[in-house]
Design a protein that fits this description.
Blueprint (H helix, E strand, L loop, with lengths): L4 H4 L3 H22 L1 H10 L20 H6 L15 E5 L7 E5 L1 H17 L7 E4 L7 H13 L2 E3 L6 H10 L4 E4 L1 H13 L4 H4 L4 E5 L5 H11 L2 E8 L4 E7 L6 E3 L4 E6 L13 E7 L10 E7 L1 E2 L11 E2 L4 E2 L4 E3 L2 E3 L1 H8 L5 E12 L2 E10 L8 H19 L4 E5 L14 E3 L6
Parallel strand pairs: 3-4, 3-5, 5-6, 6-7, 18-21, 19-20
Antiparallel strand pairs: 1-2, 7-8, 8-9, 9-14, 10-11, 11-12, 12-15, 13-14, 16-17, 18-19
Helix pairs in contact: 2-3, 5-6, 7-8, 8-10, 11-12
The chain binds 5'-O-[hydroxy(phenylacetyl)phosphoryl]adenosine (DLL).
């Protein structure tokens, strides 16, 4: 099912034409309205008339998070305050937060993008959508909310947390679509099982639209199995809009980008040159329709690749692979690059442990030392030392043979690793000078 078939099934050629038209309008718009871009274009020796189609995109300068921080709060806005109807912001752990504005039309477009994702996951006017992403300055809650309302679903704005209540409402209100982070979905599933529910049988929920953090196939399978539903990945970032920039259809073969609103490129983060389709690199987005906070070539630091060929669902929208991780989160263990999601993929193959884990980075002399904490499932015989030792060895061996990394595995008792209601914190950096 499609939410906007005229866009979702538009031919590639027409989509490209539409993108080129919108890109031309966008460059003139930002050049005129945002001094930062006026100056950046001048410095690059580019004038808006030089951009004739999306093939010229690489002539434009990049935008990075620091540019948004430097523009705090409103210098990157293209409209006056009277046109801004909403603000979201992502808290900066370092430096200023980034602030993003939305006009009424921006919110309509955002709702459409999320609605496409929800409909692709099976939503209709008859659906009840439980939004367990956090509401507030984070874009997850209100973004998913708007998408559900755009379709005409019944939306439950429960926000994140209060897990017992989540389960009760899933049951009492016959929720059929759950929206939250993957780690929170797993926590909800575990808690429901603990409370004596058989979620796969007792609950009506048939799809979960999960995003805001990476989720390995292993973790996805675990959530699907425990809750008896299908997981649809949804991607986005506040600077570019929020959830809904790209999402999975029922084929689960990559995420469809909303090409009419965003132009995606994949670049090599070191050379900044575009990579061939199919090669992994950093996703860069240009917003084609945003009025309040448009962005040219925004470097996301998220690692993905273009999936070639047309999806069996019939959509011509560009597909990107599920996000492997962020360049900032990439671990370099004795020279080997590895993302936490790759470690997750390996450990979720073990039935004896849950998908809850923590990666602790420590200093040993001048070298980095990596400790992986994993938790056994509740019915594992934790006091049988030989079984525990064997499991530990097996996990370490699998990590070594799959990822070529040597990590010290520590198995901890069930329920000792902190559960997350939003984005899980998987890496704890205890290296000297990093705390
Ligand atoms: O996380 C927006 C969002 C909310 C997306 C709800 C999906 C669902 P930020 O807080 O600005 O916005 O964080 C954006 O989260 O650059 C990625 O690193 C990561 N991320 C978002 N979606 C996914 C995903 C929201 N599906 C940052 N898979 C992005 C992997 C994701 N990582």
């Amino acid at each position: 099912m499609y939410y906007q078939p005229e866009i979702e099934t538009m031919s590639e050629e027409n989509l490209r034409d539409l993108q080129s038209e919108r890109l031309k309008e966008l460059v003139a718009y930002v050049y005129e309205r945002i001094p930062f871009y006026h100056q950046a274009f001048d410095e690059a020796g580019i004038s808006p008339e030089d951009i004739k189609s999306i093939d010229d995109i690489a002539r434009l300068p990049f935008t990075v998070k620091q540019d948004l921080r430097d523009g705090y709060p409103f210098k990157m806005f293209a409209v006056e305050n009277d046109e801004v109807v909403r603000i979201h912001s992502s808290s900066g752990t370092t430096g200023n937060a980034t602030v993003v504005g939305y006009t009424e039309q921006d919110l309509v477009n955002w709702g459409d993008c999320v609605a496409r994702a929800l409909v692709a996951a099976g939503a209709s006017t008859k659906s009840t959508v439980q939004v367990a992403y956090g509401y507030g300055l984070f874009t997850g809650g209100l973004g998913a909310h708007r998408g559900g309302e755009a379709i005409g679903c019944t939306v439950i704005p429960i926000s994140s947390g209060n897990t017992r209540r989540q389960i009760q409402l899933l049951d009492d209100f016959n929720t059929d679509i759950l929206c939250c982070t993957p780690s929170y979905a797993l926590h909800i599933a575990e808690s429901a099982l603990e409370e004596g529910y058989k979620p796969a049988d007792d609950l009506q929920v048939s799809a979960a639209v999960l995003g805001a953090e990476p989720c390995s196939e292993g973790m996805r399978n675990e959530i699907e199995e425990k809750l008896g539903l299908k997981v649809h990945d949804i991607y986005g970032l506040s600077e570019v809009m929020g959830p809904g920039v790209a999402w999975e259809c029922d084929k689960q073969q990559g995420l469809h980008v909303c090409d009419d609103h965003f132009l995606v490129e994949i670049i090599d983060p070191d050379t900044l040159e575009p990579v061939e389709d199919g090669q992994w690199g950093e996703a860069v987005f240009t917003t084609l329709t945003k009025q309040a906070s448009p962005l040219i070539r925004y470097r996301t630091r998220d690692i993905t690749r273009i999936i070639k060929g047309r999806c069996a669902c019939g959509r011509a929208l560009t597909r990107i692979d599920r996000i492997a991780g962020r360049t900032d989160d990439m671990l370099i263990i004795r020279g080997v690059n590895v993302f936490p999601s790759q470690i997750e993929e390996v450990i979720t193959q073990f039935e004896e442990i849950t998908a809850q884990y923590e990666i602790i980075l420590k200093s040993k002399g001048s070298l980095d030392h990596v400790e992986l904490h994993v938790e056994t499932v509740p019915d594992f015989p934790f006091d049988e030392v030989r079984k525990l030792e064997a499991l530990k060895k097996d996990i370490a061996r699998e990590l070594k043979s799959n990822l070529q990394v040597a990590v010290e595995v520590k198995i901890v008792e069930p329920k000792t690793i902190g559960r997350s209601e939003g984005k899980a914190k998987r890496i704890i950096d205890m290296r000297e000078g990093r705390q």
